[in-house]
Amino acid sequence: MIELQLDKTLTSPRRRFNLALSFKTDARRLLVYGPSGSGKTLLLQLMAGLQTPDAGLINVAGRTLFDASRGINLPARERQMGFVFQDYALFPHLNARQNIAFGLRRGVLNPRRTASAPQVEQWLERFSLHDIQHLYPHQLSGGQRQRTALARALITQPRALLLDEPFSALDPALRQHMRQQLATLQSQLDIPMIIISHDPQDLVFFDAAVLHIEAGRQAGAPPQPRSSEKG
Ligand SMILES: Nc1ncnc2c1ncn2[C@@H]1O[C@H](COP(=O)(O)OP(=O)(O)OP(=O)(O)O)[C@@H](O)[C@H]1O
């Protein structure tokens, strides 16, 4: 279950933006939909602990991540949210294997170029990344970058997966393949997934509950689990 009551204002000398949302949903897949600048990325950042709400409450999968009234604000690393950023945000100076191993890193040092751990092997295998594991992000295709970013998020065994426009950089054929792969993965991992998307095809494919945001406010009906998720 996801329960959010959020109030966050961003200010700069010439602009003020306020995000105010309140909803609760049992859906396993939530699709966040809305025009550019409406607050979608900010919502994921607040859930992940990369930004702090001014007030409110964030409950995900039975855990309270933030509750202003009780003074609870778990730091990002304790929230166990897997985040795949819009541009994937891979570390340019680390190869694919190191990027994936990054989530397992203890202390401040980067993983070695040949970083090894059973989980790294498992994710390289699962996403067919063995052949390109020693390449750096600028040498990877869009699909390889995306799979590397997903593996880096999932290796930490997150309790929820947050995806910011995960397919936008991919060509249509690859997009459909990755949708399928992500849906299968989510069923296997059994964690809630929150996806930002502008693409109506994602809406059809994922059959997700929809949160429609406009100018920092919920537009339309509150998110409801869709047909295949009911019962
Ligand atoms: N420091 C700031 N001061 C005022 N407004 C800000 C500040 N930082 C960001 N914003 C505004 O916050 C709003 C929400 O941004 P956000 O990145 O969440 O939008 P988005 O819906 O994800 O857009 P896109 O689909 O283009 O990625 C934007 O309108 C942006 O201009």
UniProtKB/TrEMBL annotation:
<dbReference type="InterPro" id="IPR003593">
    <property type="entry name" value="AAA+_ATPase"/>
</dbReference>
<feature type="domain" description="ABC transporter">
    <location>
        <begin position="1"/>
        <end position="231"/>
    </location>
</feature>
<keyword id="KW-0813">Transport</keyword>
<dbReference type="Pfam" id="PF00005">
    <property type="entry name" value="ABC_tran"/>
</dbReference>
<dbReference type="GO" id="GO:0005524">
    <property type="term" value="F:ATP binding"/>
</dbReference>
<protein>
    <submittedName>
        <fullName>Molybdate transport system ATP-binding protein</fullName>
    </submittedName>
</protein>
<keyword id="KW-0547">Nucleotide-binding</keyword>
<dbReference type="InterPro" id="IPR027417">
    <property type="entry name" value="P-loop_NTPase"/>
</dbReference>
<dbReference type="InterPro" id="IPR003439">
    <property type="entry name" value="ABC_transporter-like_ATP-bd"/>
</dbReference>
<dbReference type="GO" id="GO:0016887">
    <property type="term" value="F:ATP hydrolysis activity"/>
</dbReference>
<keyword id="KW-0067">ATP-binding</keyword>
<dbReference type="InterPro" id="IPR050093">
    <property type="entry name" value="ABC_SmlMolc_Importer"/>
</dbReference>
